[in-house]
Amino acid sequence: IEIVPKRFIVECRMEVLRGRVHFFPFSTHSTYFSIRARASFKVQQGNDPFFQAAIERASLRFRESHSPDPLLIDPYVGCLLPCNSVEDMDQELHPYCLATRFIDDKLLETMQSTDGLKQVVLLTDGLDTRPYRLNWPTSTLVFDICPEKVFRGALQKLQAYPYGTTVDDIDAGAKIPRGCMSFHVPSESFDVENILCSKGFSGTRPSIWAFQGLPVVNLESFKDILSTVSNLAMKGCLFLGELPVWLAEMDVGDHVGDLSAIKKWLDDLFMSYGFRVKMIEYDEVARNLRQDSAKRVSEVSTSILFVAEHLRFSDDQMETWRTEFQRIEEEGDEEGFEEL
């Protein structure tokens, strides 16, 4: 965002004009600002429900980061929000923030305790700041699968963080930890698997996958995600995150409020793609994190928090073993021919 001070004012109102967001004074003793909107954050996205949902999630992280006793701190999220965002000091804790903290901790704990785990795949809404704010182990490869337009707009803002800097400032901009690399994969791509592999992902090395925020329009689109993870992740890899509970409504119907019915639906869905899944209750997460967290939770979650272990071999693992088996067979045939 480029902020150019013009003159001092007391109050201002926002008006959109030709791709620029202007603040015009109500009185003559006011401040006038001209803020040039980045390409992917233009007014056209104002009617995009997925973009609005991403902004809402970012706002929740911003609010929690500025609470008196924050459960998580996102130092970059402020630059991603509209300029009229204000700090909400309400101490209520949204379930989304609980899930975010749980996923953060699970990602880092698993990477630190698993030998050779250097690949992280994030399935996000494009405004996720995990590549920058988490302390990834050295040599970690972070792959962010998210909407292209939202990601590009967010990247421009993050590169200009903090306010007033430009991409030409050497010390400016959000950066991933030293020794790590980050790659973007557009979620709209027709062949996400091949693009992911072309950027360096390997199905013969351990990986961990996190799903939070990536737009899904129906159950079939989430099944496509499960299929992708199942094809690429090695046996034993973890897939965790939170998915909207409405995905279960078509199959569960009137039992959508029944926890046992939701768990069975989740088990059947994930097992059909080779995952053993565990449903995590938000209250349990709150109690484990901090004694007073459960009291701060503001509402019942509309999402399902889960951790799943992959029980199948990846396509790359199968191909490696198929090639090796073929080589052994050919060597055996050659030895038999020589004996004859």
Quote the distance from N terminus to C terminus. Answer: 78 Å
- Indicate the CATH architecture of the largest domain: 3-Layer(aba) Sandwich
CATH class division of the largest domain? Alpha Beta
Write down the CATH topology of the largest domain.
Rossmann fold
Uncertain residue segments: 1-44, 164-172
Q: Based on CA inertia axes, which overall geometry fits?
A: globular
The CATH homologous superfamily of the largest domain is named Vaccinia Virus protein VP39
Number of helices: 11
Helix content: 25-40%
The H-and-E topology, N to C, reads as: EEEEHHEHEHEHEHEHHEHHEH
Structural Rg:
23 Å
Structure, briefly:
The protein contains 11 helices and 11 strands.
